Amino acid sequence: ARILEVRTVPYAIPYSKPLKFASGSIAIADNVLVEIVTSDGVVGIAEAPPRPYTYGETQASIVAVIEQIFAPAIIGLSILDREQVRSRLARTVGNPTAKAAINMAMWDAWGKTIGTPVHSLLGGFTDQLQVSHMLGFDDPDVVAAEAIQLRETLGISSFKIKVGRRPVHLDVAVCKAVRGALGPDAELYIDGNRGWTAAESALAIRQLEDVGLSRVEELCPADDVLGRRWLVSQCPIPFVADESAPTPADVTREILAGAATAVSIKTARTGFSDSLRVSHLAEGLGIEAVIGNQIDAHIGTVCSLIFGASQEITARSAAELSNYLDMADDLLQEPLLIENGRMRVPDGPGLGIRLDPEKVTRYRVDL
Ligand code: MUC
Ligand code: MG
């Protein structure tokens, strides 16, 4: 089957509970649905989330780069020509979520064409993942109540707490409140989105010693090169590279520089093909790889789930899959389900999800 058309559908669905973190905040899922139409009449789908504070992309820039540069470069190629497509898209620097959405829509089209789940095509390690929820900035009692509610209603017992505010004590108090509310069995870890200096981060790590964190992520900027290396060298738990390592080359550079000791994999920025590269790299290096959340909407969440469950290294840790819960609606025919703190891979062909055309019409912003 050949690629006949690449469609972009910008849409907007509000969050009923906005997420705030050190590098930005999000109140609307203003994503771009990407559809690849093949010569067999199959439509492969994926979505690209604009994260200007992380990658410089906007909803308009994602639509423009796909329509003006990417689509003309790949129309006519086979849906199996993923590496050729990757090479052609790589002639344009940046634009990671636009590239990733095209890659994942090609995998979805392949799976749908041959009637096979993409999860199986990727390796099919296991059919479910434990879920971890990201808790944004708020007062200690509010964040603790949110964590308790998610554990009571959905069985979620792993939480990533957003930190990076000043003074450091604000976030230390949140972490202590969440630990106090959940007790010793819950998994807690923190993500600073580069909000602190290396010294502030070191202070926080010391003050959080008895909270029992499993890891920390991007507490200070990787561009503070020597400060970051100093911090990581004294960190007693894994230090995750997220936005400082969005490509396999960045992962190599940051790990070899001593700027991180673990890596976050986000299908929103590396699609399936480069997420495979990053996970194999992590396996070869002998470091942890955790499935992160690009504040994914529903389609993006399914992509993270499918990929995370397909590889042994990513299936080991709880995956950040649940922030779609804070959105007011979705584009899907069937809702996503979290039971006993776990999500199961859908078993249909491709991504295993179906769009609701009426909802797509309601939420698209280009007509
Ligand atoms: C995360 O893990 O950092 C916040 C900004 C971004 O790009 O992703 C989120 C979550
Ligand atoms: Mg992060």
- Do you know the CATH architecture of the largest domain? Alpha-Beta Barrel
Structural class: alpha/beta
What is the tally of helical segments? 14
Reading off the top of the CATH hierarchy, the class of the largest domain is best stated as Alpha Beta
Percent of residues in β-strands: 15-25%
Estimated radius of gyration: 20 Å
Number of strands: 14
By CATH, the topology of the largest domain is TIM Barrel
The average pLDDT value, as a whole number, equals 98
The major β-sheet equals:
9 strands, mixed
User: Level of helix content?
Assistant: 40-55%
CATH 4th-level superfamily of the largest domain? Enolase-like C-terminal domain
Shape: globular
Domains, number: 2
Topology, pairings included?
Elements: E1 3-10, E2 13-21, E3 24-29, E4 32-38, E5 43-48, H1 59-74, H2 82-89, H3 96-114, H4 118-122, E6 128-135, H5 140-154, E7 158-162, H6 169-182, E8 187-191, H7 198-207, E9 216-217, H8 225-234, E10 239-241, H9 248-256, E11 262-265, H10 267-270, H11 273-285, E12 288-291, H12 298-310, H13 312-315, E13 319-320, E14 342-344, H14 357-363
Parallel strand pairs: 6-7, 6-13, 7-8, 8-9, 9-10, 10-11, 11-12
Antiparallel strand pairs: 1-4, 2-3, 4-5, 6-14
The structure holds [(2S)-5-oxo-2,5-dihydrofuran-2-yl]acetic acid and magnesium ion.
